[in-house]
Design a protein that fits this description.
- The protein starts with a helix and ends in a 26-residue tail after the last helix.
- It contains 2 helices and no strands.
- The protein is mainly alpha-helical.
């Protein structure tokens, strides 16, 4: 500890001791009377604190009881809206699924129709024999003539 902190602690202890001694010598009542008065004051303070705590608790409980119906009503309203939104989402999901299935059927039918029309419009060519194709690499010499 620093020198200043030690001095402060010693000064505080010395001051408390001097104060206690002065209090005992200058007290207008005897020790028993002073202790009885202090006990009565503490009991009165304790009773007042207990009463204040009880009043505060009752006030909070009353306010909560006043607020609770509106909170419950709001909660019920929100739950109803959430349920309605879920129902709408399910309806939309079913509608979209049905529309996709119908669109897929329409596309399949259209592709089949086009394929039939193209197949009917293009005459069938006889199968041709594969031709033998060879690729040769022709190199040029320095004078520009082929080898």
């Amino acid at each position: 500890m620093s020198k200043g902190a030690v001095g402060f602690v010693l000064g505080s202890v010395f001051g408390a001791a001097v104060g206690a001694a002065a209090g005992m010598m200058l007290a207008p009542r005897s020790g028993a009377e002073s202790r009885a008065m202090a006990a009565d004051a503490m009991n009165d303070a304790w009773d007042a604190a207990a009463d204040a705590y009880e009043k505060g608790g009752n006030a909070v409980a009353d306010r909560l009881n006043n607020i609770r119906p509106s909170v419950d009503a709001t909660t019920d309203e929100l739950r109803a809206k959430i349920d309605l939104a879920r129902e709408r989402m399910d309806q939309l999901r079913n509608t979209i699924s049905d529309n996709v299935a119908v669109a897929a059927d329409n596309v399949t039918a259209a592709v089949s129709d086009v394929a039939e029309k193209v197949g009917a419009a293009v005459p069938q060519a006889p199968a041709a024999e594969a031709a033998d194709v060879r690729v040769e690499d022709v190199a040029e010499d320095a004078e520009g003539t082929e080898e």
